[in-house]
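Reopening this ticket.

The earlier resolution said the output was attached, but the attachment link was broken on my side. Pasting everything inline this time so it's all in one place.
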Amino acid sequence: MKKLLVRVNFNVLAAETILKLNSGKSMKLIAQHLWTKDDKKNWMAATYEYNFSSRFSVFASDMYNYGNDNTTDKKHFYNFGGNYSKGKTRFSLSYGRQRGGLLCLGGICRVVPEATGFTFTINTSF
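Inline output:
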């Protein structure tokens, strides 16, 4: 199998803010923009998260490839869902569109295909 190495030059601007409310509630907003003349061009993304407590939160996010030269590839990659934690275990359920490519979470990276549907995850530590 032949491996292909591609170099992409880009600039990224990211902003994040958290508003702490009473009784352990909080709101978080993340906005990002990526500029490049290479690959699939410009992207923008935003995530809104509401934490009802340290145990339960909901979120909505969207990533849009508005700069792609191929108009059929100018897609929104939306995702929304929630998380619940009990002890050292976290349960997550979400629905949305997954962008294909390299996905890195918690320091673990893997190649994933583009897909739309539900995702259920359980993370635990022991």
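Reporter confirms the inline version is readable. The mean pLDDT is 89. The beta strands are 11-20, 26-35, 43-51, 56-64, 76-86, 89-98, 101-105, 108-112, 115-124.
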